[in-house]
Amino acid sequence: MTDGFMIIVKYLFLGLIQGVTEPIPISSSGHLVIVEALLGLRIEGLSFEVFVNFASLIAVLIVFREDIARIVRHTVRYSLTRDKESRSEFSFAMYIVIGTIPAAVLGILFEDWIESSVKGGVKIVGVTLLITGVALWLIRKLRGHKGEKHLTVKDAFIVGLAQAVALIPGVSRSGATIVGAMALGLDRDTALRYSFLLYIPVSLGGMVLKASDIVTDPLMATLAIPYAVAFIASFIASYFALKWFIDIMRSGKLGYFSIYCWVVGLLVVLFL
């Protein structure tokens, strides 16, 4: 096999890993670090991660398109007419904004630390996966009683802080926000929807902030085909992984992810 073909295969694998692990609570960034170490790849900067993360974002937008359209429609209606029937959706949109602030602010302030930690902290990933497993185990049986209309500013900010914690390599963003939401008493469906709707502005913001870096990244030219393959793989894998995870959440089987995080985290700490 030629070197070029093997590079495409490696990036295909990275795209699949990103796509599968982004929606489920096992840390996509952490798994990219682990796989890069195992494959002997060294991808400088965060451009590749942001690029394939954008593919996952497109999958999330498709899966939650009806929720997004409804929220946007009612938010615009309430903003223009103060229609009382649209107020709850407007409030939910504001809670998404509030929940986005902590991660956005801390992400900008600690960008350099995050980048250096992601690229040099395989052991950190192992430890944080173990912690993620514990957090998921603690809330695995919670059902919650609070729906979308019961969210408060305090709830939104606390879940936003949980999302900010996921800036640490190995801490799952979906896992952190779902754990935070369910610990506050949100029911599983609301916790899931709020978690992934929070993901949208954070991912978009990351893409915008890194747009110039992605465009000027020399790897984007020299590895255009492998990057494109990774992007497509990430999109397809994210779509099906998210659909699967929705079913897992509704059946209350988060404990399986705890066990997975413990096994992988322990292996990383001991052998990488």
UniProtKB/TrEMBL annotation:
The keyword Acetylation does not apply. Its EC number is 3.6.1.27. It comes from the Bacteria. It is found in: Cell membrane. The chain crosses the membrane at residues 7-26, 46-64, 92-110, 122-139, 191-209, 221-242, 254-271. Belongs to the UppP family. This is Undecaprenyl-diphosphatase. The lineage of its organism: Bacteria, Bacillati, Bacillota, Bacilli, Bacillales.
